[in-house]
Amino acid sequence: VLTALKDNTALAEIPVIMLTMADDRDSGYALGASEYLMKPVNVERLLSVLQRYESRKSTGPVLVVEDDLNSREMLCTLVERRGWPVQAVENGRLALECLHRYTPSLVLLDLMMPEVDGFDVIQAMRNHPEWRNIPVVVVTAKELTAEERQWLSSQIQGFYQKGGLDRQNLLDEIEELVELMAVSNG
Predict the structure, then answer these.
(1) 6 vs 19: CA distance, rounded Å
(2) β-pair partners for 33
(3) What is the pTM of this model?
(4) 74-94: per-residue pLDDT in tens?
């Protein structure tokens, strides 16, 4: 199982803590285990190891990409109230610059922006190996064509129309995606 996990590029970076009766630490570490604990497991030792990996979780900020100042501030406030760090930019070009500097937990993205629109940001993210798995939730006022909706459904994790924005549903989805990103970044 450990070999299969480490061979899968989507899972390879997740720390694996082996809890086993076999006294073969060298093999466990050679296969990619992050920690190797012998049974019966000392509870304090296990909690210490788990705490060490919990503190290493890399949950970057939620990146809000929105050209309208009022909408940008509203989205930032919603996210900050949940206790997540936020980075906000006003267009897609600046969002791509941010992605070169750090990995956000999630991108909240408008589609209609000057310079580089949201469609181009999504396309760039999905074409870049390090950005491909970052969750994207679109929040836009744009009326989408059937073709645009179909393309987006295969590229993003959520879609919200600004006019009918259900803030609680948006927050719940953000929370779920941020937690999933944190787990996958181990």
Answers:
(1) 17
(2) none
(3) 0.63
(4) 888 888 877 778 999 999 999
